[in-house]
Design goal:
24 strands, 9-stranded mixed beta sheet, 543 residues, 5-stranded mixed beta sheet, Rossmann fold, 2 domains
């Protein structure tokens, strides 16, 4: 169906829209119908790429209501939404404030698919709607806005064109005095560039992914929130299992901050769970304690220490040895196409391939039910189902002589395999990363919030693992015999789940994740390591 065929399906939603005297309820019902109709004309993948996830009206009302508590009751409102969509925040604004109090309202929307019908829909109202990219162009509204509310597009950095990203970074560096990470999502740039639009005392409210609180690229946002002309008022983080959008698995938070050069509050309110009006937990933190280099998830009603819990007392101790001192921690191997490169022994025999071109491979965490993988014949893991990885390290012409059937398999690979992102970066495309078996592994992603949220696997076999695992390799300068590894393995699986959760990060739908650096920060008692560890450190110091 072409664009000309699609348009009439939507037109009737605004041709019969209520007039200016219609109730706010009528207008919101019509706006919601328009939103759904426009969304339906785009594929889910197209909206994901542009970060177009519409805000539920109930959430928009909560945000506007909470924002009103930071505003002077009689002050006229100059409103801006830099990612307007069909105008859910404007609709909530009109429902909460009288029309007389709204002096002006401006919306910016980059996508004509939404802009044109939305401009027609709100044409009888006190709204100036601009079809433009908020991050690219300055406007006459700079320094005039006293209420800015937005759900900016959630576009990950790899969807930003390289030249555009470079320009964004340069402009933020020039305008804000910070240099943002190249891994920043588009929503970070919206926050950076919004500051110039705020009047003295202007309030800014943002519905954004909560990941900036934990990840390295979030440092820039936190630096801006702590600048001398910004008063950070509140951050509310929704529960990870309470996703705010039907079509995006992303854990959300709401920021409230004010632009002011006057005397500011000395504290910031962190709330979590429940709703903005009725949070489950509240913590007031002195502004001077906030460090942009640290994770801020520790302020949302949980323990702030990263360490180990003594079973006898249940207390948390900051003493011990960091795992990073004992192990190098790397992600497992990314094949580029598990379906093509990973096979069962039965399939390999069926296809007639030579066994010398395959290595033992652990199954996925979902399939692996044991915490200890024993070694069988030729280092194969003793498991109900076995897998092997195709690992050819020779040119095709040589392989044609050594194993003609395997040569045909590679030559006739489905086109999407050799041209895929990972395989296309390798020479030859079918070679795999060099990975050795590791004695300990960690399943670093989980949606479970109880018990062993992350499992630690003791691997005695010669099997390597996919990138569904983190692989813990004993450092060359460290002596850890099997007995010490066994004790560590038991201890890590007994570790209180909250310690691992606080060290990692959380995403929508309750997805918890540990990155290698985060796992490296976990501390274990030195008593688990034995005399060999102590001797190795003494020898290292003497050298």
């Amino acid at each position: 169906m072409g664009a000309q065929d699609r348009r009439p399906r939507v037109l009737y939603f605004w041709w019969d829209k209520p007039g200016i005297m219609a109730t706010n309820k009528d207008m919101e019902e019509q706006r919601f119908r328009l939103q759904k109709a426009l969304d339906a004309l785009k594929t889910q993948s197209a909206r994901n790429k542009l970060g177009q996830f519409s805000t539920p009206y109930s959430l928009a009302i909560d945000i506007i209501s909470s924002a009103s508590k930071y505003m002077e009751k009689e002050k006229e409102i100059n409103f801006l939404d830099p990612a307007f969509g069909t105008g859910v925040f404007y609709s909530a604004l009109r429902a909460h404030f009288t029309e007389e109090r709204i002096k002006s309202a401006v919306g910016v929307e980059i996508d004509k698919h939404y802009f044109e019908p939305t401009a027609e829909f709100w044409s009888d109202h006190k709204l100036e709607l601009i079809n433009n990219d908020f991050t690219c162009k300055k406007s006459k509204e700079e320094g005039k806005i006293n209420l800015l509310v937005a759900n900016p597009p959630y576009v990950r950095h790899h969807h930003l064109e390289a030249t555009a990203k470079k320009l964004l970074i340069e402009r933020v560096t020039s305008e804000c005095g910070i240099r943002p990470s190249g891994l920043s999502g588009l929503y970070c740039y919206f926050i950076y560039f919004s500051i110039r639009y705020l009047a003295e005392g202007g309030l800014s409210c943002w519905l954004v992914p909560s990941e900036f609180l934990d990840v390295n690229y979030g440092r820039g946002v936190k630096e801006v929130l702590l600048k001398s002309n910004i008063e950070l008022l509140r951050i509310h983080r929704y529960s990870a299992d309470n996703v705010q959008f039907d079509d995006a698995l992303v854990s959300s938070c709401v920021l409230f901050f004010r632009k002011t050069t006057r005397k500011k509050l000395n504290s910031v309110t962190f709330t979590s769970g429940g709703t903005l009006e009725s949070p489950r937990q509240t913590l007031v933190v002195d502004r001077s304690e906030l460090n942009p280099l640290e994770k801020w998830n520790k302020y949302f009603g949980s323990s702030t220490k990263i360490g180990f819990k003594e079973k006898a007392t249940g207390s948390c101790s900051p003493d011990g040895i960091e795992l990073g001192e004992l192990f190098q921690i790397k992600r497992g191997l990314a094949t580029g196409s598990n379906k093509f490169f990973i096979m069962t022994p039965e399939k390999i025999r069926q296809l007639g391939f030579c066994a010398e071109f395959f290595r033992p491979m652990l199954p996925s965490p979902r399939e692996l039910k044991t915490l200890c993988v024993e070694s069988g014949e030729n280092g194969m893991p003793v498991l109900p189902v076995k897998y092997l990885l195709l690992d050819v390290r020779m040119e095709l012409e040589e392989l044609k002589v050594r194993d003609p059937l395997l040569y045909d398999y590679l030559v006739n690979a489905p086109e999407e395999v050799p041209t895929g992102y990972l395989c296309s970066k390798r020479k030859p495309w079918y070679t795999q990363e060099r990975r050795e078996p590791s004695p300990l592994l960690c399943t670093y992603m989980s949606r479970n919030s109880n018990g062993n949220i992350f499992r630690f696997i003791r691997n005695r076999s010669q099997a390597i693992a996919s990138n569904s695992y983190l692989m813990l390799y004993v450092r060359k300068e460290v002596l850890l015999p099997d007995e010490s590894l066994d004790r560590l393995h038991l201890f890590l699986n007994d570790l209180d789940a909250s310690i691992l959760i606080e060290s990692g990060r959380v995403y929508g739908g309750g997805l918890h994740k540990l990155e290698p650096k985060e796992l490296m920060s976990i501390k274990v008692p030195s008593s688990l390591l034995g005399n060999e560890w102590t001797n190795s450190q003494l020898n290292l110091a003497a050298a």
